[in-house]
Amino acid sequence: MPTRPPQEGWDLHCHTVFSDGTRTPREMVQEAKSLGLHGVAIADHDTTAGWEEAGQASHDLHLPLMRGTEITAQDGNVSVHMLAYLYDPRNRHICDLFEKTRRSRVERTKKMVALLAKDYPISWQSVLEQTKEGSRTTIGRPHIADALVAAGVYANRNEAFADAVSTHSKYYIPTPSPSTSEVVRAVEGAGGVSVIAHAADPSRNRVLLSNEQIARLADEGLDGLEVWHRGNPEDQRARLLALAQRYHLLVTGGSDWHGAGKPNALGENLTDDATVAEIVRRGAIPLCR
Ligand SMILES: [Zn+2]
Ligand SMILES: [Zn+2]
Predict the structure, then answer these.
(1) pLDDT tens digit string along 122-131?
(2) d(Cα 183, Cα 74) in Å, to the nearest integer?
(3) Is there a smaller number of Cβ atoms within 10 Å at the N or the C end of the chain?
(4) Residue 270 alpha carbon to ligand 2 centre in Å
(5) pLDDT (tens digit, 9 = 90+) per residue, 48-64?
(6) Ligand closest to the CA atom of residue 175
(7) What domains can you pick out in the chain, each with its CATH number?
(8) What distance in Å separates the CA atoms of residue 158 and residue 165, rounded to the nearest whole number?
(9) Among residues 22, 43, 27, which one has the least CA distance to residue 156?
(10) What DSSP state is assigned to residue 257?
(11) How far are the Cα atoms of 56, 114, 121, 221 from residue 125, in angstroms, in the given order?
């Protein structure tokens, strides 16, 4: 198990216009190729909508692609993002899980917009206009932030996230999410590989997942931890590596690239080839190439 971030390999955590990224799947593959990455994974929030375009681009541009999704979950009072790789997208249980999440996310975003519209010049329509792929985009707070920027309230998305769209704002409504155990089970049932994204990022959670929570998830079938991510501080990386060793979890890395939507640079964190090969061995569907 590598204990230092790999210098070459795959970026296993990338977002496109099919969730809150600003680039298309084809642009993602193109940029990964020009950077000399060994491959790239698409991991849009709670959707597989970008898989087809990404697969076609991977084939055309001769860069291997791993198909994945970042799933929002809840573990007690901790909001957890889980990366799911190479699962069968036709599996009924996992389709139902996404459908339920997407429906409740739309409802929750509508409620937040209704609250914000009392004080700011935005509407549900102006938020919908910020989604690049219409109803195929997983809608959420980034699109509210973009609508506030378009209305001239904030200069950019980050300013909106620091104020009206923040989790501490009076307009905030939490996303209803499945439990981490449900997600691990659903991904396993669909033949995929589950990894906790940015597993110890204090800027996202005041309370981090405890050793006991991670141990329980490992016992329930969790495959790995995303250790190499800009959000995990040094001391937390050491804790995560120790847990990975103890519970035989895979160690992955990814940039959490969002195109121009976030400062994260494609390929800034990577997963080594041996770990990618193990994910492929466990997965239900092959890489695209
Ligand atoms: Zn995330
Ligand atoms: Zn992400």
Answers:
(1) 999 999 999 8
(2) 9
(3) C
(4) 14
(5) 999 999 999 999 999 99
(6) 1
(7) 10-98+177-282 (3.20.20.140), 105-162 (1.10.150.650)
(8) 9
(9) 22
(10) B
(11) 32, 11, 11, 41
